[in-house]
Amino acid sequence: MTTEVSVRHNWQHAEISALFDLPFTELMYRAQTVHRQFFDPNAVQISTLLSIKTGACPEDCKYCPQSIHHNAELETEKLMQVQAVLEEAQAAKTQGASRFCMGAAWKHLRAKDMPYVLEMIQGVKALGLETCMTLGMLKAEQAQTLSAAGLDYYNHNLDTSEAFYGNIITTRSYQDRLDTLGHVRAAGMKVCCGGILGLGESRTDRVSLLQTLACFPEHPESVPVNRLVRVAGTPLADAPELDAFEFIRTLAVARILMPASHVRLSAGRTEMNEQMQALCFMAGANSIFYGDRLLTTENPQAEADKALFAKLGLYPEAVEMVSDDDCETALMQRIATEQDKAFFYNAAESGQ
Ligand code: SF4
């Protein structure tokens, strides 16, 4: 018999640590039990991510190839034209995505870019897709403007614990991040906020990151859990690989702490085999990006995702333009017939 789980916002560090310390199968069982109380355990939310402005970012995030402070090989791209973005969104919708995420490598949103951003939001909304953007730091009034234009989600990751943050980023503070997240909430938008594992942080840091997220007055609706992609030319290119079980444990604990949130298996999937991804889904991950690039790092090809979904009996969470019954079929058919087309469109190859 299972006990009904309630959504809590008062998680203590020691409680979270104790979850991490559970025997692996016990932790997985608990995470699955919680997951099934809040979600269909075989449904996975599908998002498509487009980089609308790539590279030349003034921030110094040590993991990121888009930072001007590092020497990663990356072709920079100016802000895409609105029409090009809308064409990508239409293609994503046709292929089964329910949410279209647009990311720009900016420290903060500038006033001169706002009109274009608003046009993108309104255009993508008009296609019947949920909209998500990540544009760097926002002022309160900017968050209000984006919300009024119809932006559903704002992505702004905390990356790691407050204590470890200074080891990874020096050009902004943890409080800067929290301030923007507060503006997003105050404007009525949903929050997409998570972190990156394998930055050299300790388990205590992972516990602290999850505690911060789980103690927000409202949990982020989406919690992306990224595994560091070690990109040549970045300061973390040679970082030691995080143990796979530790990554899966973190996903499972996130599921238990934030039971009603979508926990997204995000960057780093390319370096995970099918078995590891299956364990991630069992741990409670129920959201992924489809496609072949995730902003500027590799993401498994749509065909590989299709094969894995079929093996595991997973299906996309219902999307607006098809009925629940038709959803899986529609997406799988699209994948099957579009084998040569990536689910994620490379901003470097389209528009400007
Ligand atoms: S993670 Fe974002 S803010 Fe940090 S350097 Fe990369 S693009 Fe800029």
From TrEMBL:
It comes from the Bacteria. It catalyses: (4R,5S)-dethiobiotin + (sulfur carrier)-SH + 2 reduced [2Fe-2S]-[ferredoxin] + 2 S-adenosyl-L-methionine = (sulfur carrier)-H + biotin + 2 5'-deoxyadenosine + 2 L-methionine + 2 oxidized [2Fe-2S]-[ferredoxin]. Pathway: Cofactor biosynthesis; biotin biosynthesis; biotin from 7,8-diaminononanoate: step 2/2. Residues 42-269 form the Radical SAM core domain. It is an enzyme of class 2 (transferase). Binds 1 [4Fe-4S] cluster. The cluster is coordinated with 3 cysteines and an exchangeable S-adenosyl-L-methionine. Binds 1 [2Fe-2S] cluster. The cluster is coordinated with 3 cysteines and 1 arginine. Keywords: 2Fe-2S, 4Fe-4S, Biotin biosynthesis, Iron, Iron-sulfur, Metal-binding, S-adenosyl-L-methionine, Transferase. Its cofactor is [4Fe-4S] cluster; [2Fe-2S] cluster. SMART domains: BATS, Elp3. Its EC number is 2.8.1.6. InterPro entries: Aldolase_TIM, BATS_dom, Biotin_synth/BioAB, Biotin_synthase, Elp3/MiaA/NifB-like_rSAM, rSAM, rSAM_sf. [2Fe-2S] cluster binds at residues 101, 132, 192, 264. [4Fe-4S] cluster binds at residues 57, 61, 64. CDD domains: Radical_SAM (cd01335). GO terms for biological process: biotin biosynthetic process. One of its GO terms (molecular function) is 4 iron, 4 sulfur cluster binding. Catalyzes the conversion of dethiobiotin (DTB) to biotin by the insertion of a sulfur atom into dethiobiotin via a radical-based mechanism. Homodimer. Belongs to the radical SAM superfamily. Biotin synthase family. This is Biotin synthase. It comes from Nitrincola iocasae.
